[in-house]
Structures are given as C-alpha cells and as structure tokens.
Amino acid sequence: MRRSRLAEYAEMTLRPEPPVPEKSGPDEENRPVEPDGAPRPPEASGAAEVPSLNEASEPTEEEVALRRSEFAVLLEAFRDTAVLVPLHDGGWLTADFGGIRWILAFSDESALSRYALARDEADREWTYQTVLGARLLDVAVPEAGVPCGVALDAADGAEHALLLPPVTGIVPDAFAVDQVQQGGTPR
Q1: CA angle centred on 81, ends 144 and 127, rounded to 5°
Q2: What is the 3-state secondary structure (H, E, C) of the chain?
Q3: Tens-of-pLDDT digits for all 187 residues of the chain?
Q4: Which residue, among 126, 114, 92, 185, has the nearest Cα to 3 in the 3D structure?
Q5: Where is this region: Disordered (predicted)?
Q6: How many CB atoms lie within 10 A of CB 76?
Q7: What does the CA dihedral 132, 137, 143, 149 come to, rounded to 10 degrees?
Q8: Residues 87/129, Cβ–Cβ less than 8 Å
C-alpha cells in the first residue's frame, strides 16, 4: 500500500483552457465555430453536407467493427496495466449505479487527484493499492457477489473515462449479466 497526499497533485491536474480565437473581421463574427471554439472554414458551394454530431444515424457495419476492434485494444491494455484502486472502509472504493457495483480504479495519481478534487476531498490522505486490471476483472468482479464492473478514471468525463461493464467478453462469462441462466432468463 502506498499513501499519497493528493492535494500535492492538484496543480498538475488542472487542464488548460482552450485559447479563444481572435476575430479578424466582420465575416468572422457570423462564422460557425467548432466544439473546441475554433472557427469552421467557409463552406465551398456545392460541397456535400456532412451530418452533424447531434444528428442520430445508425453506424455502418464497418464503423461497428472498427469500434469493437478499438475497444478490444483498450481492454487488453487495461488487463495488462496496473491501476490504482483506493481503499475505503476496509475494502476497495466502489459506487453502486444502475443496479451495478462499480470498482473505481485510476490510471495514475493525477487521475485519482482529479477524482478527489471533484468530490472536494483533495485535502485528505488517500490510501490505495496497485492492482493489475486483469485481477480486477477476473478475480474481484466474481468475488463481489453482485453484478460488478470497473470504472477507470471516473472523474475524467465520457471522453476519457473507461467503463468495463459486467458483460460477456469483459468479465468471466459466469458473472456476465448478459448471459442466460438455466431456465432461459437473463441474470
């Protein structure tokens, strides 16, 4: 076990604000901007319209295959990596949400510090264990006694956090909630 005063890492966790683009003329004022604040380039006449991110569209088979392949790479990297799991009340820090118990794990002390800051608990000392990702999925999830998954870097938002739910291909099949029990009902 290692003890760390996470407040010491607080300054390292602050993400820089994106620069605000300077306006160069009247045409710039009415130009749409990208989500990161950068102005969009002027559209050429007759150019094909690209659907926005807000428009719901069904992904193609190729996109689904690519996403599955990318997730398989992330999953293997997680299984092979040691992560930090904070200790709480004699066990690992968990959170129950949506009928699933989530073991909270962090990729490094900075990620754990961001979580502590988000909970307004950065001034206290956090004790944690370093655990191999495969051990969390293959040993800790079955020992939980309830449907259980792993949330990696939970304070880092949807773009950076990784949720590993208790489903086939992630946790042992006997503990996956999408498996059918004897009698034909899902777990």
Answers
A1: 60
A2: CEEEEHHHHHHHHCCCCCCCCCCCCHHHHCCCECCCCCECCCCCCCCCCCCCCCCCCCCCHHHHHHHHHHHHHHHHHHHCCEEEEEEECCEECEEEECCEEEEEEECCHHHHHHHHHHCCCCCCEEEEEEEEHHHHHHHHHHHCCCCEEEEECHHHHHHHCEEECCCECCECHHHCCCCECCCCCEC
A3: 444 444 444 444 444 444 544 544 444 444 454 544 544 444 444 444 444 555 567 889 999 999 999 999 999 999 999 999 999 999 999 999 989 999 999 999 999 999 999 999 989 999 999 999 999 999 999 999 999 999 999 999 888 999 999 999 999 999 999 875 554 455 5
A4: 126
A5: 1-62
A6: 12
A7: 120
A8: yes
Q: Is the dihedral of CA 41, 42, 47, 53 positive or negative?
A: positive
d(CA 89, CA 117): 20
